Amino acid sequence: MSDNMEKIKCLIIGSGPAGYTAAIYAARADMKPILYTGMEPGGQLTTTTEVDNFPGYPEGIDGPTMMVQLQQQAERFGTEVRIGMATAVQFSKEQGGWHKVTIDGVTEVHAQTVIISTGATAKWLGLPSEQKLRGGGVSACAVCDGFFYKNQDVAIVGAGDTAAEEATYLSNICKSVTMLVRKDAMRASKAMQHRVNNTANLKVYYNTEVDEVIGDTVVEGLRMVNNETNEKMEIPITGLFIAIGHKPNTDIFSGQLDMDETGYLTTHGKTTHTNLPGIFACGDVQDKDYRQAITAAGTGCMAALDAERYLATLEVAMA
Ligand SMILES: Cc1cc2nc3c(=O)[nH]c(=O)nc-3n(C[C@H](O)[C@H](O)[C@H](O)COP(=O)(O)OP(=O)(O)OC[C@H]3O[C@@H](n4cnc5c(N)ncnc54)[C@H](O)[C@@H]3O)c2cc1C
User: Is 141 assigned a catalytic role?
Assistant: First the structure.
């Protein structure tokens, strides 16, 4: 075995709620997991100041603190947490085969089971004012942050089913919702469009984009621009939700694991099994519908249990 290669029972890729929960369960089952954090140790929640909906924190908790606690809990049972990116994979198609994962282009890890929890990345408009006010009223998650804008005026950008669903979700909490659609029609299903058009406090502007998010440290307003007439209009808002989609972090698995048309990993039925034996997926990387910390953690638990059962079947076969 070369110095740069090691053989382990369980490799976890990603350090969000899914990865750390998988690590807690895998470590307690004596699978001696090694977890690589990737470029964002702690995952998406490290970019938010308030998590109010994760059970067990009656006063809420800030995202970075919660993720440090999850890491500590995983380490308490013996998970080895390492900084590093999985840069290439060569998965075996055989039951009981060794899966090769290259870390940072140099280290090779051979694992009997691999738990993939690499998450998904929200897409942003890319405007400087939007980036400046992320966490100060600009959010990519209405279900996570909508509650903070109760009875306030907010806006949402997007035209698909998720944007339409989040817009109607916000309309139940907020005083008013302004929806900006870049083209002259929504992409959302007819049923969702019908819901949007029949919501009294939800107003849609078509052919309209964000020109600037107004505010120094918190959102105070929005300047919109009609992309046909160039006409600009300012409205006072306190929250802006960007709902233009997510990109699952699955590029390195392409060609080896089954994915849907947008790159989310496909899992079988109610399990975390992928199309290959010994490879499991959990969290946002395989979930485009719920995308919450608690659902990521739940599937992280499932992935560790699925991996443990898989290892047990190998032991039985070898006995
Ligand atoms: C601003 C914001 C606020 C949110 N607020 C809430 C909230 O209040 N409540 C809630 O329930 N949810 C909230 N969410 C959603 C929640 O953060 C996600 O649903 C959850 O983090 C998904 O967990 P995950 O473990 O699947 O992936 P992520 O948290 O996305 O973590 C993915 C991990 O994979 C790693 N990774 C990626 N590629 C590689 C690679 N090649 N090699 C190694 N590692 C890799 C990354 O470094 C990261 O550690 C929020 C999201 C955002 C963006």
Answer: yes
